[in-house]
Amino acid sequence: MIRTVLGDLRPDALGITDSHDHLFFRSAALPGQELDDEAAAVAEVRAFADAGGQSIVQWTPYGLNRRAELLAGISTSTGVSIVTATGLHRREHYLDGFVDKVQDQLAEIFVRELTAGIGDTQVRAGLIKVAGGFHVLDAHAELVMRAAAEAHHATNAPIAIHHELGSAADAVLDLLVDELDVHPGAVILGHLNRFPDHRVHVELARRGAWLAFDGPSRANNATDPRLMDCLAALIDAGYADRLLLGGDTTTARARASTGEGPGMPYLLTHLRPRITRYFGADVADAVFRTNPARAFTTDWRA
Question: Would you say 248 is a known binding-site residue?
């Protein structure tokens, strides 16, 4: 099953999916760029639904303003399924002292939010979001990933990784898969468009992980022109069945409905037609429908 904010969903009911995005997000590293407007979030989800979208996976982790108390209502009112995350981001995204207070309780927090609910709500997380460092795993990243692996083994929840500028994905697999015995099919490597080395991407796919390309993201638009080349290299190598695509909308300005865009709908109004045109309808269906249904399930061996 896939755990949404309204409860468990059969994978084949997930439908056309934005595999990495944010409805709500607040970071100490991005002052003044908060996603905290309920009406704007609803408008963005409805615009995504109008473009044919059926599910959104929100990667906002613990402590960064997920607004879990609003997510079930948004899902109900828009008809769009929402999967939300537990986990912990890089240290700099939190106010001073926050990480120190919780770092010895991370596995417990993750398991509780995956099984009992987030805060005072009954909304349960459906994945664990963690983050690597720039080309290496620093002490914070390793601490969080060890807690994520513990929570994964207790719940079967998939683990999604923010890679700083797309780097250190190999180090993440070395730790999570080779050392901590997390099945590679439960690992989603994010932001790989930010490190557009085709050979590295093929090596990561060969190891059995999911490869998530998120964009267009206003903060990382330099990688947008390389997206199709990255996808082509993996498709040509036989890994169309490992690809995911998301919008990664992290600022109010980047929303389509209330900002300057391109926002969530762009995935379906612009990128999906291009993928269909270049690589065929079957590949587009895999990227937006069948791959997410496999990547975000707890039955990750399927």
Answer: yes
Task: Convert 6-42 to b/e letters by CB count within 10 Å (16 or more is b).
Answer: eeebebeebbbbbbbbbbbbbbeeeeeebbebeebbb
Angle at which helices 68-78 and 38-50 cross, to 10°:
40
pLDDT of residue 186: 97
pLDDT tens across 194-229, in order?
899 999 999 999 999 999 998 777 766 767 888 999
Indicate the fold that domain 2-295 takes in CATH. TIM Barrel (3.20.20)
pLDDT band at 289 (very low <50, low <70, confident <90, very high): very high
Token pair for 274: 């291009």
30: helix, strand or coil: coil
Enumerate the domain spans of the chain.
Answer: 2-295
| 191 known ligand binder | yes
Q: Is 101 labelled as part of a ligand binding site?
A: no
Flag whether 104 is marked binding: no
Coil vs helix vs strand at 170:
helix
Q: Using a cut of 0.90, tell me whether the model's pTM lies above it.
A: yes
